Amino acid sequence: MNADNTLCLNPGTLWLDDTFLSQPEANDYFEVLLNEIDWQQGSIILFGKTRVIPRLQAFMADPGLRYSYSGKTLSTNTWHPKVQELANRIEQYTGTRFNAVLLNLYRDGNDSMGWHSDDEPELGDDPHIASLSLGTARTFMLRRKKRSKGERSLQLDLNHGALLYMGSGVQQHWQHSLPKASHCPRARINLTFRQIITGSDKSDYN
Ligand SMILES: O=C(O)CCC(=O)C(=O)O
Ligand SMILES: [Mn+2]
Fold it and tell me: Is the distance from the beta carbon of residue 188 to the nearest atom of ligand 1 less than 6 Å?
């Protein structure tokens, strides 16, 4: 990994490789995943009301692993061969082992993900997460959990084929989100590769 792409957060380490996949490779993965993944519309209960999650999702993991958030366990699929291929490439590139992936399909700019950290107990004390983006570029936001008043959030553009690596300290000290993008009519797929360590369930994002 080229050290020039590393951002030293205070605290935390994160890097972005904008050209992890070539454009033809990214096109191919996008088309296959869009058409072949069993995308699910989930819902969560927030303050006693059922709310539809504003994006579609799928979860794949090694046998026997479970993952859940807001009290709901996502159904676990076996690895799609193309997703397994990506996991192998990303493991080789990052030197991190992953045994699960959460896939999100943002159908257009109305789909989004709220502020959260990927710090569920089953991901261990210091989760390292690799996030691959395909399709239309969207803005990814980061903000410190302990921030001073008026402190600005960081923004990164996640382009087609880009790999973002959230390393040590990022989940512990920062939150991230994928805000709505008005006037964006096209779809984006994101895959977050994770390492599940225990079988417990807990998380709180929507
Ligand atoms: O879509 C993205 O870039 C972010 C996805 C994410 O944060 C997650 O799946 O936990
Ligand atoms: Mn996340």
Answer: no
What is the reported pLDDT for 44?
84
Residue 6 domain-assigned (yes or no): no
Residues 6 or more apart whose CB falls under 8 angstroms from that of 198 comprise 121, 122, 124
Is any atom of ligand 1 closer than 6 Å to the C-beta of 94? no
CATH of the domain at 176: 2.60.120.590
In a domain, 194, yes or no: no
What are the residue ranges of helices labelled H in the chain? 23-36, 81-94, 170-173
Q: How far is the CA of 124 from the centre of ligand 2 (A)?
A: 15
How many structural domains comprise the chain?
A: 1
- pLDDT tens per residue, range 34-92: 999 999 999 888 889 999 999 999 999 999 898 876 566 778 999 999 999 999 999 99
117 ligand 1 Cβ < 6 A: no
At 201, is the pLDDT very low, low, confident or very high (cuts 50, 70, 90)?
very low
Domain that includes residue 46, residue range: 15-147+160-181
Nearest-CA residue for atom 6 of ligand 1: 192
12: tokens are 């935390």
Q: Measured from the CB, is residue 206 less than 6 Å from ligand 1?
A: no
